[in-house]
Amino acid sequence: MSSIALRQHTINAGPFTFAHNFLVLCDDQGQVVAELHGLASDPASGDPLPIGRSSDYLRAYEFAGKRLWKDGQTEKVIWEGDPEAVFARWAAAKDAHDQINRRDLTYNLAGSSSAQASSAPSSPGSIRLRERSSKG
Fold it and tell me: Could you report the per-residue pLDDT of 71-80, keeping only the tens digit for each?
C-alpha cells in the first residue's frame, strides 16, 4: 500500500535539540517518492535557508525522492491506502503548499505555539506565523 507519513529530523547543536517535521510520500513498494517541507527562505532569491530569521519567508517545498529522510527517524503514518487515494491526499497537501506560499508568511523562530516550522527548537511555544503587511 502507498502511504503518507510524518517524519521528524532532529539536529543537535550544543545543548539544544532542534526538530523539523516533514511529510513523506511512499509508493506501494515503500519507496520514497517525494517529501514536503516548510522551510525558511531568502526573500530576494526564494532559496531555502538552513536556519531562518524573522526577516525571511516561510515557504513550502516539494522535493523528489529522499531529501532529509534518514533511517531511524521518528515516523508516524498518517494515511495509507491504495495508490490513487494516497496520491489524491498528496495532491491536497500540495494545494495547501501553494496556498502557504501565496500568503507571504514570515519565518519567526520565537513566538507562540500557533504553528511549527523548520529549524525550530523542539520545545512548545517556539514558532509563530504572521502575514507580511506589504509585499516586497
Answer: 889 999 999 9
